[in-house]
């Protein structure tokens, strides 16, 4: 599948982020735990190189806990701290504590000079639909930012006062111009790219193929189907469609309906705790 997605407002956002970096002490990057590599915008690598980062692995409840540990080891270093997070179970203290641990040297410099340190200021960045707005709302306790299970909801910069120790500057979700096929598919599977521009039937077939490579029992258990070694993704989709009653007149499988079922159930975690990327495969 050829996936390209780079609206004009995203280019403007990158320029705006660069201008406002001087206003913050560090950055909080929201990562989708299901796709820890694909959900990191490579543009940020250079753009944020002079800022420490707190990497929030959001949607922890939807991802594989064993692979989570491996990804944490891969991304953690002196300038990058990792915190796994479930926005449905807010933990403000954990975020504030991790932020202060990350910035402890900078805080100590103020204290050594006898200066009173105000709240830490962090810029939040991430790709669309990584759960960034939901994360902010969960730790602020208010609906400070608009949320939605679709990319591109946040469009303006917003300051949010979490507590006296931490203030956040929100920014719109940003993708990058050229996506390789695997990254593009992973982003599409999780909803980071709008379904409106996708061929959902082909996307669902690709997801079936991906899930089969991870563990065929994911589909067998959820849909109570039997899968033979020679079965193609299309055959498996037809088995699921028949089992779920996604049929048109004459018993013909409604491919659009069954595709939406498979994608929706993956995104909601109904298929289980699934990480699409293994740390040793990157």
Automatic annotation (TrEMBL):
Top-level division of the source organism's lineage: Bacteria
Domain G, residue spans: 122-194
SUPFAM superfamilies, sorted: P-loop containing nucleoside triphosphate hydrolases
Classification via InterPro entries: GTP-bd, GTP-bd_ortho_bundle_sf, GTP-bd_ribosome_bgen, GTPase_MTG1, P-loop_NTPase
Cytoplasm as UniProt keyword: yes
Keyword set, alphabetical order: Cytoplasm, GTP-binding, Nucleotide-binding
Subcellular location per the Swiss-Prot or TrEMBL entry: Cytoplasm
Record Gene3D superfamilies: 1.10.1580.10, P-loop containing nucleotide triphosphate hydrolases
Matching NCBIfam families: GTPase_YlqF (TIGR03596)
PANTHER family tied to this protein: MITOCHONDRIAL RIBOSOME-ASSOCIATED GTPASE 1
UniProt function note: Required for a late step of 50S ribosomal subunit assembly. Has GTPase activity.
Family: Belongs to the TRAFAC class YlqF/YawG GTPase family. MTG1 subfamily.
Protein name, entry field: Ribosome biogenesis GTPase A
């Amino acid at each position: 599948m050829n996936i390209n997605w780079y609206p004009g407002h995203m280019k403007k956002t990158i320029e705006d982020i660069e201008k406002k970096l001087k206003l913050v002490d560090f950055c909080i990057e929201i990562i989708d735990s299901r796709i820890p590599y694909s959900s990191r915008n490579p543009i940020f690598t250079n753009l944020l190189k002079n800022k420490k980062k707190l990497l929030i692995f959001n949607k922890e409840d939807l991802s594989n806990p064993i692979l989570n540990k491996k990804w944490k080891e891969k991304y953690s270093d002196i300038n990058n701290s990792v915190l796994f997070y479930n926005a449905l179970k807010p933990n403000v203290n954990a975020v504030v504590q991790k932020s202060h641990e990350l910035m402890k040297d900078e805080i100590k410099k103020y204290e050594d000079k006898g200066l009173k340190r105000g709240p830490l200021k962090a810029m939040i960045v991430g790709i669309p639909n990584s759960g960034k707005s939901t994360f902010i709302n969960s730790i602020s306790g208010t609906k400070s930012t608009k949320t939605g299970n679709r990319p591109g909801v946040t469009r303006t910069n917003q300051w949010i006062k979490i507590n006296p120790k931490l203030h956040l500057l929100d920014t719109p979700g940003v993708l990058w111009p050229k996506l390789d096929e695997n990254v593009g598919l992973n982003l599409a599977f999780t909803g980071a790219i709008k379904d409106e521009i996708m061929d959902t039937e082909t996307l669902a077939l690709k997801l079936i193929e991906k899930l089969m490579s991870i563990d065929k029992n994911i589909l067998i258990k959820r849909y109570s189907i039997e899968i033979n070694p020679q079965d193609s993704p299309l055959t498996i989709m037809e088995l699921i469609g028949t089992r779920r009653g996604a049929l048109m007149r004459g018993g013909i499988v409604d491919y659009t309906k069954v595709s939406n079922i498979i994608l929706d159930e993956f995104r909601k975690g109904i298929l289980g705790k699934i990480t699409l990327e293994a740390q040793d495969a990157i």
